[in-house]
Each structure stands twice: as C-alpha cells, then as structure tokens.
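User: Predict VWA domain-containing protein's structure from this.
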Amino acid sequence: MIMRKLPAAAAACGLLALLACGLLPPTAAADEPTAQPAPKVELVLDVSGSMRARDIDGQSRMSAAKQAFDDVLDSTPPDVQLGIRTLGADYPGNDRKTGCKDTRRLYPVGPLNRTEAKAAVATLAPTGWTPIGPALRAAADDLKGGDGTRRMVLITDGEDTCGPTNPCDVARDIAAQGIHLVIDTLGLIPDATTRNQLSCIAGATGGTYTTVQHRQQLTSKVKQLVGRSDEHTVTPVATQGAAACDTAPELRQGLYTDRETFSENRWYRVQVPPGQELRAAVTVSDDRAVNAGYGVLLRGVTVHGREIVRDDEGGSGRTDAVSAGIRYPKPAADSGTPPETVCLQVGNSFSAPASVKTTPGLPVELSIDLVKSPDKPSDVAFFGLGRGWWLLGLLTVTGGVAGLLSGWIARWRLNTGRTV
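Assistant:
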C-alpha cells in the first residue's frame, strides 16, 4: 500500500522543483561568462631521420609521437583552433640547402576535424633534416590573426641542423613582433646541447621546456599545454622573486614566469583588497634530470611573518612538473580600509646528480587571481564552478522538503487506513 504512494511523492518533488525554477531571477543567464576569442595552437613535430630511434618505452620516437598526437586530438577542447606543422618530413637527401627548407603545414590552424588530422599524422615517417628555425618562423605565420591566445608546441629529439641562424634568436625575433605568442618546447631523450637550445627558445617567449622520456609523459604534457591555451587569456610576464618579502616584487592579477635554483625560496607580494579572495597557483618544472623525492611549497604569510595559508605537493621523479595552490579570502570591511599585503613564498626541494647543471634555475609559473570574496556563495565561483550552483542547492533543499511532506502524508494515510 505504501509503494502505491511513491508516484505521488515523486510528483510532489517534481512540482516543487518546477516551482523553484519558476522563481529564478530572469537575469541568471546574463551572469554566464561572455564568449572569448578562440585560442590558437600549433603543434610543430620533428620528423627527421633521428626519430627512428627506438628508445621510448621500447618503441620508436616517431611511434610514440603519433600515439600521443592521437590522444591529444581526441581531448582537444572544442573551441581551440589547432594546427600541425612538420619539420624534416619530406626531403631524404643530403643537400643542406634543400633539407633546411623542409617544413610543411600538415593540418591548417582552425576548427579541428579529428579524423582528418589523425589521418594526416598517420602518414608521417622519419625522413630528413632538423630545420627548427625555419619551422618556428613558418608556424608563427600560421598563428597570426585573431584576438585569441597563441601557443606553439615544438616537439623534437635534437638541436637545429640548419645554422648559422640560431633558433633561439628566431624565438626572440618572434617575441619582438608583439603578437603574444608563447612557445613551449619538449625534448625527446635530449642531450645537453638540445636541452640548452630548447630551454632558450622557450624562455625567449615565456614558455616552458620539458624533457620527455616516456610516451605517456609526452601525451600528458601536450594535453596540458593545449588545454592551457584555453585557460589563459594573458601572456606570461617575466618577473624575479626576492630573497625576502620586504624586497619582493608586487604582482597584480595575471600569469608570471620566473626561474628558481634547486632548494631555493623566492618571495612575491600581492595586495588583497577587502572583499576579495586571492587565488594563487605555482608550477615548478623539472626540465632536467633530478633526484626522486622532491616537493614544491606555496605559502601566504602576513608582512609580520604569520602564516595564513599554505599548500605543498611532492613528486616521485616520474612527473615533469609539480603544482601547488592556495586561496585566501579577505573579508569585506568599511570603505577606506586599505588592502592587505600578502607575502607569497615559493619554495622547492629539488636536488640533482652531480653531473647535472643547476643553472639556469628551474622554470616557475605563478598564477595570481583576485575574485570577489565568497561571503555570499551565490556571487562567487568556487573552483571554477559558477553561480548556477546555488540552483542545485535550492533544488536539493526542495527535494528534501518534498520527501518529508510525502513521508508525512504516507504515514497519515497508513494510520488512518486510507489508500490512493
């Protein structure tokens, strides 16, 4: 007899939920984020003869790259305009002049057709030279136009073989064009010369360099970089942290890059106005061989040294970067109350074998965001989830009330012997 009453309870829940939705303010849709210009990303892949080497998880470097590209293409955000360019894919001969022109747009930057892009990648075979400089110039041209962010991801297993132009100088020229193009570089089983060259290319444009030794590591890093193009709408700004808070640079909302030596601590300052919440995140990349068992620390302290918030994360030696993040809300106050100075400490516990150079320091990326303090949960995003979540809370409460009412009705009918 009680089971026959469940449809009535469900109907009551649905009715109350519909009534709740009907009470929503008509301006809710206006709070949705406004459309941003589509970000552009171009993957620049080395297809030179050395990519035949079979030293990445028992398979060739080329096979590992192809598998990584398939995974990346499947996970590319729908609003990212993605393209693919090759270097060294077409000319197998020994003529240097011809080999150093061997760069081709494999898939144009634009809306992604995953099937077509995968088919194009599947045709590649290790072939020729390594014209990194010419490929960088051509890729920069591919990415011109539009107002969205621009990111280039260079994947290679060796240094440029087409001097005398240094590809790092090419990267500096691209940065000087003012087109806000970030170049990230990934070195497949690189030697010291390759690491230095790729680090220089990335540093010239505010990008990152990563050493890759495993296929899954390559997949994860490229996915991260492609996804990052959809997250950041500003170009990273180079800064230099200080040894103490009182001499630290003052950072505003934005994305910053720095370098930190092994086991170093650097300080930065942020002014947090009343009613605002500071959200800070840091990533330190191990762009060279490091010892296992390391960590990254991000702390927020007052100017007097009192800790107010912290986060620390550890690494095992199998990841290429470690991140930590903190949140610190400043309660609202009377008008005229000055902002609070928050000192941010970024530290690391990296170490390396004696044969590894410790200079330049490890790449650091620091993100600073200031949002309205969550004194009123309906007016602030929480971990990227916006105002629509107050509706979920309302519906949850509504469902609970409906359940109580239906249970009371069922008990009353049971006690009085009534049926539906």
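The first helix runs from residue 6 to 22.
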